Amino acid sequence: MGNLFLYNKYKPNSLSDFIGHSSILSIVNYFISVGNIPCNYIFYGPKGTGKTSYSRIFFKQVNCKELLHSRNNSNCICNNDMVPSIDFFEIDAASNRRLCDIDRLLSRRFFIPIKYKYRVFCIDEAHMLSKFSFNYLLKVIEDENSNFIIVFISTEFDKIPDTLRSRCLCFKFNKIKPREIYNRLIYISEKEGINICKKYLRIISTSYDGSLRDSLVALDTLRAFNTSILSTGTVLSILNLPPIGILRMLVSLILSGCIIKVRNLSRYIVNSNCCYFDILLEINNIITLLNIKYSKSNGAISYLLSKLRNVLIRELKYFNYYNYDAINFIYIVTKLVCYVSTFKRYGSFYIP
């Protein structure tokens, strides 16, 4: 086997390696325990949260003869690295979106499974399917079936037709918690013999918006350096992450209503060549933490922070991740500080 990226090498193939999403595991285990397994699913959520990986583990779960499907049950096939068998089919809807492609895949549903009880069809990037493919699938998933399961995987749930969504059991894969990512990074670092300061692992675990895959790519990048002699600023520069201290200062200036200082600092951040979308996400995280901090002690500030966060989220919704034009970033930051100026009667305040 050739050299692999860490996210490929440590892709979860068993239930014991799968982190987070305990509520989804509980629901699936319940259906398995009562012997009434739904046959249509939609796995949706942000990138890097384990949707496609879990579809393979899900195949093992529904076909395991053990009654207890847990991370500690060594007899359960969900806890071994077995590759899904001939009864598991996976296609990418981005390159197989036509009706004939889907019909060719699902034509296998007329045959009984070869080795296991259920045959599982996994359609990744399902939102890319054509209109005719969706219409064809409506009839397929409506028919009663006892030996095959269809799993749709998508990062854009809103693009899947309502008529299809209403016929499926929908599981949302939320962003993975930073603590869970941090523990996984420590485990992989120790297993790979990567000498890296734990404070940098904390930075990685909180900087990639709950995506374990992106965090592992960042760890793969840092393993080429001797992090013991690198400063935090250098590590942030290597990973192309915005400096946290600068962003905290920017939020302080926004909350104080200093438009000129905010514009000057925004231009400085623009010159650092960081991703503007990531910067705005980090600003949103800082505002959220401040809102939690002041929610009980200062109602006026908490109210302002919640309103400010709503404005930022609304702007992020229409912000193009791949738009490298700094004008939009400066416009959003200026809009935030202008919004704060309407609350000047509460006085200026800074991050303590």
Put the structure in a nutshell.
The chain contains 15 helices and five strands. It has 352 residues and is an alpha/beta fold. The chain has a five-stranded parallel β-sheet, with helices on one face.
Give a written overview of the molecule.
This protein is α/β, with parallel strands linked by helices and 352 residues long. It folds into 3 domains: 6-172, 3-Layer(aba) Sandwich (Rossmann fold); 178-238, Helicase, Ruva Protein, domain 3; 244-346. 50% of the residues lie in helices and 8% in strands. It has a 5-stranded parallel sheet with strand order 2-3-4-1-5, with helices on one face.
Roughly how many Å apart are the termini? 52 Å
Strand order of the largest sheet: 2-3-4-1-5
Question: Rg, please?
Answer: 24 Å
Strand fraction: 5-15%
Helical coverage, percent range? 40-55%
Mean pLDDT: 82
How is the CATH topology of the largest domain named? Rossmann fold
Q: In CATH terms, what is the architecture of the largest domain?
A: 3-Layer(aba) Sandwich
Helix count, DSSP H or I runs of 4 or more residues: 15
Q: Which spans have pLDDT < 50 for at least 5 consecutive residues?
A: 346-352
User: At the first level of CATH, what is the class of the largest domain?
Assistant: Alpha Beta
- Give the overall shape: globular
Largest sheet: 5 strands, parallel
